[in-house]
Amino acid sequence: QVQLVESGGGLVQAGGSLRLSCTASGRTFSSYGLGWFRQAPGKEREFVSCVTWNGGSTNYADSVKGRFTISRDNAKDTVYLQMNSLKPEDTAVYYCAASTYGSIVYLRRGDNYNYWGQGTQVTVSS
Questions:
Q1: What is the overall mean pLDDT for the chain?
Q2: What is the pLDDT averaged over residues 73-98?
Q3: What is the mean pLDDT of residues 76-98?
Q4: Residues 5, 120: contact at Cβ < 8 Å?
Q5: What distances in angstroms separate CA 80 from CA 5, 72, 121, one per listed residue?
Q6: Are 114 and 24 in contact (CB under 8 A)?
Q7: HSE-up of residue 100 (Cα within 13 Å, Cβ side)
Q8: φ, ψ at 25 (rounded to 5°)
Q9: Ramachandran region of residue 85, left (φ > 0), alpha (ψ -120 to 50) or beta?
Q10: How many CB atoms lie within 10 A of CB 40?
Q11: What's the first-to-final CA gap in the chain, in angstroms?
Q12: Residue 69: closest CA among 78, 77, 58
């Protein structure tokens, strides 16, 4: 059993930055691969970024490459998503998730995750 809680969302002007945090509790945090997903109104949930258990491998959706950075601090049971150069199309509810899959190959798919946070709203104004 793992509980995930996101924070850091809010309203920001286009071109600005936000850093999302997700803190886990319940079981050994370092055992899980971690990911960030987002869902805009009327759209399907989509993959944003992921990182393996030791932080050795990361992956990003094409739409956020060069702008977003994922990182994790296992000592703090926390994963971060640094979002720079934000665009209105980044507006969505952002979710963090934890997976027992160990390989980066599996972490782009939402159905490979065991636990999900409640989400945090990110709104980018134009």
A1: 94
A2: 95
A3: 96
A4: no
A5: 12, 6, 15
A6: no
A7: 5
A8: -150, 165
A9: left
A10: 14
A11: 40
A12: 58
Contact 31, 53 (CB under 8 A): yes
Cβ-based burial of 74 (10 A; exposed 0-12, middle 13-18, buried ≥19): middle
d(CA 20, CA 49): 12
Return the amino acid letter for 47.
F
Alpha-helical runs (H) found in the chain: none
pLDDT of 25 reads 87
| Length, in residues, of the chain | 126
- Joined tokens for residue 16: 């600005």
Q: How far apart are CA 30 and CA 14, in angstroms?
A: 34
| Bridge partners (DSSP) listed for residue 49 | 36, 60
What's the token pair of residue 34? 């971690």
- Given a contact cutoff of 8 angstroms between Cβ atoms, the answer to whether 117 and 95 are in contact is yes
State which amino acid sits at residue 92: A
Q: Could you tell me if 96 and 33 are in contact, meaning their C-beta atoms sit under 8 angstroms apart?
A: no
